[in-house]
């Protein structure tokens, strides 16, 4: 009888440990899946902002948590790691932009037609899709992207000093 009780208690002990391990593994999988999903949803795509005229050129690129700034045609870019707060602010502003309507945004001014402002464009590349804005005057972006463009320029200038 004692032998039977010993075998039964050992079997239940090992069985309960196995269930615990399985539950812990399943919970870890759920947490890992949630964090991957959060990363996918909250990643900023590749952002390219360009301004140029006959005598001026500036390109700002945000890619993989870094910001690249080119201030002359053919020059090598200077780059920095984006600060976490700058990244979060750009991400928040990006999430308010309608990418499908980006190419049809109306520019508020036409100073670029008489060299009063550089020609500017903004584009976002997500995996296989690239969304590019219509041309607008540098310094006078359409209202729908104004906050994002101004913040992007501000971050680039702050780091470029």
Automatic annotation (TrEMBL):
Identification of the protein by name: Lipoprotein
Lineage, uppermost ranks: Bacteria, Pseudomonadati, Bacteroidota, Flavobacteriia, Flavobacteriales
């Amino acid at each position: 009888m004692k032998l039977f009780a010993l075998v039964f208690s050992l079997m239940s002990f090992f069985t309960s440990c196995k269930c615990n391990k399985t539950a812990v593994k399943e919970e870890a999988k759920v947490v890992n899946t949630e964090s991957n999903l959060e990363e996918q949803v909250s990643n900023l795509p590749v952002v390219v902002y360009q301004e140029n005229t006959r005598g001026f050129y500036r390109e700002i690129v945000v890619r993989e948590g870094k910001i690249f700034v080119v201030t002359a045609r053919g020059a090598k870019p200077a780059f920095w790691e984006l600060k976490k707060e700058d990244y979060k602010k750009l991400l928040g502003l990006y999430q308010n932009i309608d990418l499908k309507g980006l190419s049809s945004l109306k520019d508020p001014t036409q100073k670029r037609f008489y060299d009063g402002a550089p020609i500017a464009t903004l584009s976002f590349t997500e995996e296989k899709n690239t969304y590019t804005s219509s041309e607008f005057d540098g310094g006078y972006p359409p209202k729908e992207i104004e906050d994002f463009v101004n913040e992007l320029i501000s971050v680039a200038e702050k780091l470029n000093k």
